[in-house]
Design goal:
Length: 331
């Protein structure tokens, strides 16, 4: 029996620093309308989809960055997006900067900031929330960099793990869905934790500079997109799942982000790709039963994995130096 869902990446072009949320939400509603006309059942919007990629801007006083955060989801400003999705019966993924009054590990309730994404069902219910675990960049102003990348300044590391939920979507009574955010896609461990929960579709938003802004060494420009696609295709193949990976793209206040949003199948094949760096909808039919081939053969985890040999993966943070070979004294 077919388990077909039509999914789409709703790529956004640039959002300028001065652009109000209402403008971004309006652009997203228009993409939902286009998705509805094309019979799309699940739409994936980018990471931090409501504002410009503000971690490129330094705020000495972090409270001056509060304007980039959402204190409620939905809110009056994002309600039109939820209303449109419910009107069309379309589920969606949305990335945004979350500010929450919440207890931390000491039990103290305080103001906490996360790079967050939510999966919303066709009736407007928030099905799942995820908070970005792999925060790239730095926490203090870096004079060497051409452009700052201050995610470690503005966000805490996520505290929800890598969850997967089985929930109704499209015409199906249950799809196993999970989320990653941007830099997460470069870490195979993140994909594997989702794969070990039988994920079938990963919703992933990203904001990725099209040029290497670190002063760490030369990286050929064409490799930026290659590395992004390589990470997503490998993640899908090695965990037998689909991914819908959606960019915020284009030039934001002079800073360029690449597009090339893609939809990838469990064989690791790109089955749809955006051609512009603007607002663009790419859609594909995802036959979820395609996940079963890999999951029951090459990547039948229960038959082939050897966790007893994987201790370093959770036992270490950084790499250690290897043992040095010594020529043994002649016997
Ligand atoms: N952006 C980039 C990303 O991981 C980056 C940062 C780019 C890190 C290239 C390493 C190499 O796609 C975000 N927002 O994580």
């Amino acid at each position: 029996m077919s388990r077909l869902i039509t999914a789409a990446a709703a790529q956004l072009g640039p959002i300028q620093r001065a652009e109000p949320r209402s403008s971004a939400v309006g652009r997203m509603v228009r993409l939902l309308e286009r998705a509805h006309r094309r019979g799309v059942e699940l739409v994936v919007f980018p990471e931090l989809a409501l504002t410009t990629f503000f971690p490129r801007h330094y705020h000495e006083d972090i409270s001056h960055a509060d304007k980039w955060f959402e204190t409620a989801m939905p809110s009056a400003e994002t309600a039109p997006l939820f209303d449109a999705a419910r009107r069309y019966g379309i589920g969606f993924h949305l990335g945004y900067a979350e500010m929450a009054q919440e207890a931390d590990e000491t039990g103290a309730v305080r103001n906490r900031r996360f790079n967050t994404s939510v999966l919303v069902g066709p009736e407007g219910d928030v099905l799942l929330k995820y908070r970005k675990m792999h925060l790239p960049g730095h926490a203090e102003y870096d004079t060497r960099r051409k452009v700052q990348h201050l995610e470690k300044r503005y966000f805490e590391v996520g505290n929800l793990g890598f969850p997967v939920i089985r929930a109704p979507m499209g015409g199906l009574d249950g799809i196993n869905m999970g989320m990653l955010i941007c830099n997460d896609r470069r870490w195979p461990e993140a994909w594997r934790v989702l794969g070990l929960q039988s994920v079938e579709l990963v919703a992933l938003g990203y904001n990725t500079p099209s040029l290497n802004m670190e002063a760490g060494g030369f990286e050929a420009h064409h490799l930026r997109v290659f590395h992004s696609h390589l990470s997503i295709q490998a993640g899908c193949y090695q965990n037998s799942c689909f991914a819908v990976a959606t960019a915020k793209a284009g030039i934001e206040d002079g800073n360029e982000l690449f597009g090339h949003s893609i939809i990838v199948n469990p064989q690791g094949e790109i089955i749809a790709m955006a051609g512009s760096w603007d607002d663009e909808l790419i859609a594909a039919d995802c036959e979820l039963d395609m996940c079963m081939l890999g999951r029951t053969t090459v990547f039948a985890f229960d038959r082939h994995r050897r966790p007893e040999a994987y201790g370093r993966i959770t036992g270490q943070v950084g790499a250690v130096e290897p043992e040095v070979w010594q020529k043994s004294a002649p016997r």
